[in-house]
Design brief:
This protein is mainly β. Helices cover 9% and strands 43% of the residues. The N terminus is likely disordered.
Length: 485
C-alpha cells in the first residue's frame, strides 16, 4: 500500500467514527390547493375553494372546461390537469384579480406552484398575466408572462429564494391585462406547500411546540431538567411553570407572604398582604376565628398586593379571666395556586381585639395639704381603636382627697399611648392613705385594669419651707433664746 493510499484510508476510517450532528427532518404539507373543479360557472364563483377575494373588474375571471379552441395554449384544447382551469380575459387594466392570504409563520420553507398558459396577448397594448407574492414587508413580482402565446408550463417558487420570509400574513395575487377579443391568461393546479419539521424525529425544532408536536417537545425527565420559570410548557401537559403540579415543590413555586397586616373596628376588619410567587396567579383565603370569611373569598389575582375585608367582624370579646384583655382571636390566611391548592403558605395570627396596658406608680410620698400629680399612662395593645374610662377613688376621703378622678382618654389606635393625671392631697400628718385606680375599655367595659396606689405623708425639710419660712424659723429661735438666757 502506497503512502498516499494509506493516508486516504486513515482519513476515511476516522471520518466514519465521527458522529453526525442530529438534524431535524422536514416534510411538506399542502396548506392550500385549488384545481378549480369546485368553482361554479359564475364570474369569481370560487365558492368554498377558499380564496380570500376575487375581483374580475370589467372582464372575466371564470372557470372553463376548454381553451376556446386555442390549442396553441392548451394541448388538445383541455386544461392542464383535470376537467377545469381558470381563465382571465378582457381586462383593460389589471384589476385586483384573484388573491389568497395565508398564515405561514410555522413554515421553514414555502413552495407555491401552478401551471399557466397565455393566448394572444398583444405587446403593443402591454397585455400580460402576473403573479405577485407579498409578506407585508416585501413584495415580489414572481411572474410576468409578457405578451404573445405560450402553451401550458408548470412554475414553482420557493419564497425564501425570492427574498420573501414566511410570516403570519402572506398574499398570493394573480392578475392580468387582456383588453378584449381572444386575449386570455390561463391558470391551473394552484398549490401552496409548507415545509415543517417532521413530528416524531426526536428533535423539538424551533418551529415545533407542544401544540404541534408534543412527542418531540415534551421533556419527560422531570423538574430537575426543567426551568420552572421559563414560561414554557416543558412536559406538554397544558400547564406552565408553577401552574404545573410537577413544579410545585420547586423554589419559588409556592406562594409566599412577603408582608402581612390587618386592622379593625367594631364594624369592619381589613386584611392586607403582598405575595411572591413564580406562577401567574395566586389565591388567598382568610377567615376570622375559623368561621367568618374575608371577602372576596377566595381572593384571586396576580402575585403582589391584595386585600380582603370582613363586615361586622365577629370578634370574641370574652375577658381572659382577670387579665386586661379579651381571649385571643385567630386570623388565618392561606396563599396557593388554584391548580395546586395543597401547595400553600399558611399564616396564623392571634390577637386581642381589646387589650389595655397601664403604667401607674403603686406608691408615692405626699406632703400634707399639698396636691401631688398621679400620672396614669394608658396604651392600647388591642386591634380595635378604643377610648378608656379612668377612675381614681380614695378609700378614705377624710385622709386623702382626689381631684380629676373621673376622665376619658382620647380615641387610641393600636399601640397609641396617652398620659393622664389626677391630683392626690393627703389631709392628715403621719398617715398613709390609698387610692384605687381603675381603667376600663369603652369597647368592652368588662375589660379592666385596676391597682391600689399607696400615699404616705412626709414632713417638710428646711429647703421645703422657702426663704420666708427660714427667716421665720430664725426669728422664732432668737425669741426663744432671749427667754432662756
Amino acid at each position: 500500500m502506497g503512502r498516499f493510499t494509506a493516508l486516504l484510508t486513515v482519513v476515511a476510517t476516522a471520518a466514519l467514527v465521527v458522529p453526525a450532528a442530529a438534524r431535524a427532518v422536514y416534510v411538506n404539507q399542502t396548506v392550500f390547493y385549488d384545481g378549480f373543479d369546485a368553482w361554479s360557472s359564475l364570474k369569481c364563483g370560487y365558492g368554498d375553494a377558499g380564496w380570500t377575494y376575487c375581483d374580475y373588474g370589467g372582464g372575466v375571471i371564470v372557470r372553463e372546461t376548454d381553451c376556446d379552441g386555442h390549442t396553441a395554449a392548451c394541448t388538445g384544447n383541455v386544461p392542464y390537469n383535470g376537467s377545469y382551469h381558470l381563465k382571465f380575459e378582457n381586462h383593460d387594466s389589471p384589476p385586483p384579480g384573484l388573491a389568497k392570504n395565508i398564515d405561514l409563520s410555522g413554515c421553514n420553507k414555502v413552495y407555491v406552484s401552478f401551471a399557466w398558459a397565455k393566448f394572444g396577448l398583444d405587446s403593443e397594448n402591454g397585455e400580460h398575466g402576473t403573479f405577485r407574492i407579498d409578506n407585508g414587508t416585501k413584495s415580489v413580482l414572481a411572474l410576468d408572462t409578457g405578451s404573445g402565446t405560450a402553451i401550458y408550463s408548470f412554475q414553482e417558487y420557493e419564497l425564501k429564494a425570492l427574498g420573501v420570509i414566511p410570516s403570519s400574513s402572506v398574499w398570493f395575487v394573480l392578475t392580468s391585462k387582456c383588453d378584449g377579443g381572444n386575449d386570455e391568461f390561463y391558470v391551473d393546479e394552484f398549490k401552496v406547500e409548507c415545509e415543517v419539521p417532521q413530528c416524531g424525529d426526536g428533535l423539538c425544532d424551533a418551529l415545533e411546540s407542544c401544540a404541534s408536536c408534543a412527542q418531540d417537545c415534551a421533556v419527560p425527565e422531570g423538574p430537575s431538567q426543567w426551568n420552572c420559570g421559563d414560561l414554557i410548557d416543558n412536559d406538554c401537559d397544558g400547564k406552565i411553570d408553577c401552574s404545573d403540579s410537577d413544579c410545585t415543590s420547586e423554589p419559588g413555586c409556592v406562594p409566599e407572604f412577603t408582608s402581612f397586616s390587618f386592622e379593625g373596628t367594631t364594624s369592619l376588619m381589613n386584611v392586607n398582604w403582598n405575595t411572591e410567587y413564580g406562577g401567574t396567579s395566586v389565591k388567598v383565603e382568610c377567615t376570622l376565628n375559623g368561621a367568618q370569611q374575608c371577602l372576596p373569598y377566595p381572593y384571586a389575582g396576580q402575585p403582589g398586593g391584595g386585600s380582603c375585608s370582613i363586615a361586622s367582624p365577629a370578634y370574641v370579646m370574652t375577658p381572659d379571666g382577670s387579665l386586661p384583655h379579651t381571649v385571643a382571636n385567630t386570623l388565618f390566611c392561606a396563599a396557593y395556586d388554584a391548580s395546586s391548592p395543597t401547595q400553600r403558605t399558611e399564616k396564623t395570627v392571634q390577637f386581642y381585639p381589646v387589650s389595655i396596658e397601664v403604667a401607674v406608680p403603686t406608691s408615692m410620698n405626699a406632703v400634707v395639704g399639698e396636691s401631688q400629680n398621679l400620672q396614669i399612662s394608658v396604651k392600647n395593645n388591642g386591634t380595635l381603636s378604643d377610648t378608656y374610662d379612668i377612675s381614681v377613688v380614695s378609700t378614705n376621703p377624710t385622709l386623702l382627697d382626689v381631684s380629676n378622678g373621673e376622665q376619658t382618654s382620647q380615641l387610641l389606635g393600636t399601640n397609641d399611648v396617652q398620659q393622664l393625671y389626677s391630683g392626690l392631697t393627703l389631709l392628715a400628718t403621719g398617715q398613709t392613705a390609698t387610692a384605687n385606680v381603675v381603667v376600663s375599655s369603652s369597647a368592652q367595659p368588662s375589660i379592666q385594669f385596676s391597682t391600689p396606689v399607696s400615699v404616705k405623708g412626709t414632713e417638710k425639710s428646711l429647703p421645703e419651707f422657702g426663704v420666708l419660712g427660714l427667716l421665720q424659723i430664725i426669728a422664732a429661735a432668737a425669741l426663744l433664746a432671749s427667754f432662756l438666757f
